[in-house]
């Protein structure tokens, strides 16, 4: 208990005793005076015994002549270790405390090291080593900590002592590193998506407008053959735009529903047979090379029939476009492990290099952009497949060998009533 508190208690005690004496003198009743004194004493006991109000993490008030150091407070150090993100404390330009995540990110050697060496960034170094007092916290975006792809936000704030003075004269800073890689990647994907979609729409639109301008020019002539050729190109570009818009709308709907699991029971045996029959009827000689191997014991899956049909059409359509003519396109449906159904589409095409495989499901990503556009591809087919599979709580795997072909495998959960 400090000196101020002791003086306050003595003054309060004197007031209580004086009040009891005054009551006895005025009322002439010692019982009333005793009760007044007892009530005052009880109130004083309750007030002095009450716990102090919660404050920021600091040490208790120091004894006279002693300085409180927050770094010696075990609660403060426990708080640092309880934070899952990197946090460190710098004093006089050196790192004096660091929690385990900070040590893992920057290295165990940073404690006692110059903060400008521990975090090599010009703006960060200026703030960490500045001799002046900080008036308010600052935030700095960092690149280069951890891996090259990681993006960090570093928040620097003054670390005050219990008396309100910053860092007990040591110019202390508390540094909090927050990983913003996910937010940065999401924003970059959004910007890339808008840019790619705009480009994909602008290219055919420019061609259509150019041919319209040519046809409406009186000096261009009105040859039937030329007009027919131009109109055919315009029709092709317009249909390309239509396919792109359809795929963009489809992708938007799938993403809007991705948190709502489909609850219909779908017989994939019937659906696979239906899609294969459509390709065989509508793709001429190439369609005749599409074959299906369907296991009769395959259980129904829990899903959305229209979306699963779209998956099959996209996968078989890709194989029909890019596989070598005269080679089979094999659609296989079999029971899978752990309550799953296995669906695969395999072709004998040119195959895909290992560097491209991780990015095939990105929107507008193409291994060969010119060939894809010439084939009528929008660059969204596999992205749509991925999102549909994710909505169905399934798994997607793409395996390919250059020169031999590609196999895309999907595992889907069986319907709930079958699983029971």
Strand content: 15-25%
* Amount of helix: 40-55%
* Biggest β-sheet strands, sense, barrel: 5 strands, antiparallel
Oligomerization: single chain
As residue ranges, the low-confidence spans are: 20-67, 163-169
Can you tell me the number of structural domains?
Answer: 4
Question: What can you see in these coordinates?
Answer:
The structure is a single chain. Helix content is 48%, strand content 17%. Helix 7 runs antiparallel to helix 8 (224-256) and helix 9 (268-282) crosses helix 11. A hairpin with a 2-residue loop joins strand 1 and strand 2 (94-98). With 420 residues, it is of the alpha+beta class. The chain has four domains: 3-49; 70-179, 2-Layer Sandwich (Beta-Lactamase), CATH 3.30.450.20; 185-256, Signal transduction histidine kinase, dimerisation/phosphotransfer (DHp) domain (Helix Hairpins); 264-419, Histidine kinase-like ATPase, C-terminal domain (Heat Shock Protein 90), CATH 3.30.565.10. It has helices at residues 3-27, 30-49, 74-82, 100-106, 115-118, 122-129, 181-216, 224-256, 268-282, 284-287, 305-322, 369-374, 381-391, 416-419, and strands spanning 87-91, 94-98, 138-143, 151-158, 173-179, 264-266, 290-294, 301-303, 329-335, 340-346, 395-401, 405-413. The chain has a five-stranded antiparallel beta sheet, sandwiched between helices.
Features:
420 residues, alpha+beta, Beta-Lactamase, Helix Hairpins, 4 domains, five-stranded antiparallel sheet, five-stranded mixed sheet, extended
Write the layout of secondary structure elements.
Layout: H1 3-27, H2 30-49, H3 74-82, E1 87-91, E2 94-98, H4 100-106, H5 115-118, H6 122-129, E3 138-143, E4 151-158, E5 173-179, H7 181-216, H8 224-256, E6 264-266, H9 268-282, H10 284-287, E7 290-294, E8 301-303, H11 305-322, E9 329-335, E10 340-346, H12 369-374, H13 381-391, E11 395-401, E12 405-413, H14 416-419
Helix pairs in contact: 1-2, 7-8, 8-13, 9-11, 11-13
């Amino acid at each position: 208990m400090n000196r101020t508190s002791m003086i306050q208690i003595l003054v309060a005690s004197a007031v209580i005793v004086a009040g009891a004496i005054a009551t006895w003198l005025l009322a002439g009743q010692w019982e009333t005076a005793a009760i007044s004194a007892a009530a005052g004493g009880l109130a004083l006991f309750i007030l002095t015994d009450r716990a102090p109000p919660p404050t920021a993490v600091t040490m208790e008030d120091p004894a006279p002549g002693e300085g409180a150091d927050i770094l010696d407070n075990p609660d403060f150090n426990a708080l640092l270790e309880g934070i899952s993100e990197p946090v460190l404390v710098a004093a006089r330009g050196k790192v004096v405390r660091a929690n385990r995540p900070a040590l893992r990110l920057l290295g165990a050697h940073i404690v006692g090291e110059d903060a400008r060496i521990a975090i090599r960034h010009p703006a960060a170094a200026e703030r960490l080593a500045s001799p002046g007092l900080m008036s308010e916290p600052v935030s700095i975006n960092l690149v280069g900590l951890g891996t090259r792809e990681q993006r960090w936000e570093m928040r620097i704030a003054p670390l005050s002592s219990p008396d309100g003075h910053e860092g007990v004269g040591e110019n202390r800073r508390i540094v909090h590193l927050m990983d913003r890689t996910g937010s940065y990647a999401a924003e970059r994907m959004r910007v890339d998506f808008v840019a790619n979609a705009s480009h994909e729409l602008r290219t055919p639109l420019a061609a259509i407008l150019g041919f319209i301008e040519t046809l409406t020019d009186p000096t261009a002539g009105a040859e039937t053959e030329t007009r027919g050729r131009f109109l055919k190109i315009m029709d092709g570009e317009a249909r390309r735009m239509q396919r792109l818009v359809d795929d963009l709308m489809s992708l938007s709907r799938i993403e809007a529903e991705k948190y709502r699991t489909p609850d219909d029971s779908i017989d994939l045996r019937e659906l696979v047979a239906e899609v294969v029959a459509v390709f065989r009827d509508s793709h001429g000689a190439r369609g005749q090379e599409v074959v299906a191997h369907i296991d009769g014991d395959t259980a129904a899956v829990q899903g959305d029939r229209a979306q699963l049909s779209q998956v099959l059409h996209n996968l078989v359509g890709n194989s029909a476009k890019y596989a070598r003519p005269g080679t089979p396109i094999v659609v296989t449906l079999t029971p899978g492990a752990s309550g799953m159904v296995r669906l695969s589409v395999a072709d004998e095409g040119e195959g895909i290099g290992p560097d491209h495989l991780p990015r095939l499901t990105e929107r507008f990503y193409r291994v060969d952009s010119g060939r894809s556009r010439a084939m009528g591809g929008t660059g969204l087919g596999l992205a749509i497949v991925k999102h549909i599979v994710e909505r169905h709580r399934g798994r997607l795997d793409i395996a390919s060998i250059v020169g031999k072909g590609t196999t895309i495998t999907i595992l889907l959960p069986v319907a709930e009533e079958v699983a029971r």
